[in-house]
Every structure is written in structure tokens, then in C-alpha cells.
Write a structure and sequence with these properties.
This protein is of the alpha+beta class. The chain is globular and about 60 Å long. About 30% of the residues lie in helices and about 25% in strands.
């Protein structure tokens, strides 16, 4: 296979030919609902939960997709099957599911333009996203509280996973200007409470209790929800409540969750050690249980891809790292 295939509006097309109009509402307004998933041993994890969230967003934003959720799930399986032969044996499938409203009405007279919603499912190796993160399982992240605040749900509901995310980008730029490496943005809400990172959910651990911000001004992540499942398996209490920066500074442990890397430890806040400044025991316990449940050593897998990194993405902007050669720290 010369290049990967993308499922686009009912057809499998070469990746380089998967394009939408310059008049699409996604380009004009960021008017797009999306999901990104991952596999373990090439079997999708929590795909239905991702699709349920996608379809909730489509319903609320009134994007009139005629495709049923079952049809969407089948399309995901079809694109993975079409591409699997071109993946390395140790690769995992990362799906990118984008649904846009289609061209704005004033452009419907343009010849050959697609007026209906676009449904696009891309499939690429997960290692693209997580290469370079392996050392974080041992060292941890320095979370940086940025001046850029989270947008409250009363203005733009973050529970709808949409592409209107310029505030995430601005927070990443600010975090990238901190000296040193491994600085990730952490956003406050308008009342000064911790919300989330720019594509990840946040947790602290205090006296054996796992605490995460209330699901009001955040994306209610699929991985975030899985921590509650892991807590039940390990007889650990997981609660939602408002968290202030003070609570993070005085916590025993902290970590972030997201689909590609599952969990990563946070060992510092604004350069100040959290707990003893090292990866905590409960973090390792949760990660070990997650790995056991899915039949993949998550840490070892990502660290293995680290060894294969080479020059992929070197010196460029990535979803979890904005610093590049053009940025001045």
C-alpha cells in the first residue's frame, strides 16, 4: 500500500486526496465535532464511548449527519482493516474522526461544492502522537498555570469536543516560553479553580483519595472516566470537586489523563515539587492495572517507540508540545 486510506463521506480515498472545501464551515468557524481514539493490540479502546460523545455533540450543535452511530462504528472498522497491512507489527491505530457541517449556505452556488456535512475518518500510527513522551513516565510533567483561562461552559461548552480551540493554542504557546523542558499548560476557570490541560484531564491524590475537577468547565474525557473504573477495581476513592492551585501544591501526587498516553505523572506545578517531586506509588498502581486490563504494558510500549523516534516531528509543533526552533524560551 503506497499510502494510507481515509474514509471520507462513504468512500476510502488516499490520504493525500482527503480534502474539504475552503468554504466549509469548519474552516470558517471551527464548526466541527471530532474524536480521536487509540487501540491496544490493534483493538479499539472505548470506541463506542467516543462515538456516543461525538453524537451528543452533533445533536447539540445541530449538525445533520444522516449516518447512524452503528454505521459510524463500522466505518471505523473498515478504515482500520484497509490500513492495517501498512502498519508496523507494534503499531497501534489512532483514529481521527472529524464531522463538519459542510459549506456555508452563501457558497452553495459554487460548482462542485459539497453542501452536506463531511464525515472523515483518518487512521494513522499512535506512535506519531506519543513518541518523545516515554521519559515522562519516570520524570513527570511540570504543569504550568497560564494566564489564558478556560472558556466557561456558559460561553462555549467544553463538554462538546469541538475544533474552536484557539485558547488551548495560546495556553500552549505561553507554557512553551517557560525555561526547560516538559512544561505543559494547565488552565484555571474564571473563578480560579483548576480545570484541565490543553487536551488532557487533571487529577491529584491526597491521603489516598484521587481527586479531579468537577465536570462543569472541562471536557469529560473518556480516559478520565476510566480512572473511576480503575478506582473501583483497586478499592480507591475517586471524587470530583473544585481544586485550587494550593491543593495541587500540597497534594501527594498528581497526573494527567488522555487517550493517546492514558496517564502521565505531574511532579511539579510551576516548578514547585508536588509531594516528593517523584512519580508516586498510586500513579504506578493505577497505570499497572490499566496495562493489565488491556493486555499492553503502556509505559513500555511508549518508551519502546521513544527508542524508534529518529527525526519524526523533531523541532516542530505537536499536540502536546508547542516549543519549536522559532520560539524563544
Amino acid at each position: 500500500m503506497s499510502q494510507r486510506l481515509v474514509w471520507m463521506n462513504g468512500e476510502l480515498v488516499p490520504e493525500s486526496e482527503a480534502k474539504i472545501s475552503i468554504y466549509d464551515s469548519a474552516l470558517m468557524f471551527g464548526d466541527m465535532v471530532f474524536e480521536m481514539t487509540r487501540s491496544f493490540n490493534k483493538v479499539q479502546f472505548k470506541l463506542r464511548e467516543h462515538l456516543d460523545r461525538l453524537y451528543s455533540g452533533l445533536k447539540i450543535l445541530q449538525i445533520p449527519v444522516r449516518m447512524s452511530i452503528d454505521e459510524m462504528e463500522k466505518a471505523c472498522a473498515d478504515v482500520m482493516a484497509a490500513n492495517d497491512a501498512g502498519f508496523n507489527a507494534n503499531d497501534e491505530h489512532r483514529l481521527l474522526i472529524d464531522v463538519s457541517r459542510g459549506a456555508l449556505g452563501i457558497y452553495h452556488g459554487v460548482e462542485g461544492i459539497r453542501k452536506e456535512p463531511n464525515v472523515i475518518i483518518a487512521d494513522f500510527p499512535l506512535r506519531w502522537t506519543v513518541q518523545g513522551m516515554g521519559h515522562l513516565f519516570d520524570k513527570g510533567i511540570n504543569a504550568v498555570i497560564t494566564s489564558q483561562r478556560a472558556i466557561p461552559a456558559s460561553l462555549l461548552d467544553p463538554k462538546i469536543k469541538n475544533r474552536s480551540r484557539i485558547h488551548y493554542l495560546m495556553a500552549n504557546i505561553e507554557a512553551s516560553q517557560w525555561a526547560g523542558e516538559d512544561n505543559w499548560a494547565l488552565l484555571l476557570d474564571v473563578d480560579g479553580f483548576i480545570t484541565e490541560g490543553t487536551g488532557d484531564n487533571f487529577f491529584i491524590i491526597k491521603d489516598g483519595t484521587i481527586i479531579t475537577p468537577e465536570g462543569r468547565n472541562i471536557l469529560r474525557g473518556i480516559s478520565r472516566a476510566y480512572i473511576f473504573e480503575l478506582g473501583k477495581q483497586l478499592n480507591l476513592n475517586v471524587v470530583e470537586k473544585n481544586i485550587e492551585p494550593y491543593d495541587v501544591y500540597t497534594a501527594d501526587e498528581a497526573f494527567m489523563t488522555a487517550t493517546p498516553f492514558c496517564m502521565l505523572p505531574v511532579t511539579k506545578l510551576n516548578g514547585v515539587a508536588i509531594g516528593n517531586g517523584r512519580v508516586g506509588n498510586l500513579f504506578n498502581k493505577l497505570l499497572a492495572q490499566w496495562s493489565k486490563n488491556v493486555g499492553v504494558d503502556i509505559k513500555a510500549q511508549i518508551q519502546g517507540w521513544n527508542q524508534e523516534q529518529g527525526t519524526l516531528g523533531k523541532g516542530t509543533v505537536t499536540p502536546y508540545r508547542f516549543k519549536s526552533e522559532t520560539c524563544t524560551p
